[in-house]
Amino acid sequence: MKSIFTFILLLVITFSTAHAQADQYLMSARKLEVRSGPGFNYNTIAEVPQGTQVYVINSGYGEWSTIQYKSMNGFVITAHLTQDSRIADAERAASEAAAKREAAKKAAAQAIAQAEAAKRAAEEAARKAIADAERLKREAEANAAKAIADAEAAKRSKDAAARRALADTEETRRALEEANRRAQKGGSNVASTPIESTTPSYGSNSSPAPSTAAAAIEVSREDKYSSWEKKTYKSGATPKSFNFKGKFDYKLDNYLKIKVGKNTEVVVKMYKMGKTEKDDELVRVTYINSNAVQFIRNIPEGEYFLKIAYGKQWVETVKDGKRYGTFSKNALYEKSEQYLDFKTVKTSKGINVPSYNLALDLLPTGSGYSTGNTQDNISADKFNED
């Protein structure tokens, strides 16, 4: 009967450890007899050598304490135990080391994040520098091309003037020869002295009357777009002639607001700049009617330039299986040298998403209409390039 009670008591001790005092490590001051209960009348179930470290579960049994020794629990006299802080010190040191490791990990993660941010900033600065250099290169190439074109035009004009001067000189020489021949033949109505001239006339406002009446010529103006199909589009549509589907970034709530005046309709082509000119990407083609305001939204992040077609009465045709489109009246074409920066900017208040306003119209001149910026004018073929 006593052994059964001992077994039950040990079970109670085993399952009540969660409510005992924690983290108490003691050492036996002498050889300990571990008993099955708190008294000398209980059986000895183990012996603990002097100097052995044990874990005290509870000291609330008068002169007796419950301990854990190896894989068993039992009772020993409390006076035979002495304090041992080695394990507690080791656990405290381990806890402090773990805290230091966590702090070091956090510091390393923060340093990595800062390095990544610095790397991204450096890459962005380098990309912007490349874009600026490419833009300056394009401007220099455009200026050089314009200078060459101006020089070629001046040369052609000079050559044409020289040809006219030679022609006038030849005409004067022939007139002198004819006058000299008449003078040599004699006659009362012919001058006796040959006409001499050393200076070419370079043309004259008078010309000899034709010997016979000229045949009547019927003059009419040819409409080269008469066979083309007239098309009408709503503002914001993409003309079918471009066979193009726009690119959108619906995560960006940005826009390009375009206000068109009364003198024109426009087709605006937006190009995202690449590292080189061949990497430029067409992103949007938008038709806008006169006296209209159009928002071009959800533009992918990047730097952009525009090609703009001005005019009235849009027409389209098909040549060799390819569709073409243009304005048939007052057509002018322009490429902007001003770049639109749609890159987002991170600030302390959040992300800044840039947007732009643009006003377009043709200016009436004495000979028709003008964009007001002849430096950026391009040809229809240049505008229609992809």
TrEMBL record:
Polar residues bias locations: 186-203
Compositionally biased spans, kind Basic and acidic residues: 162-181
Signal keyword on record: yes
Bilayer-crossing regions: none
Stretches with biased composition (Low complexity): 204-216
Residue span of region Disordered: 162-216
Coiled coil, from the record: none
Name under which the protein is recorded: SH3b domain-containing protein
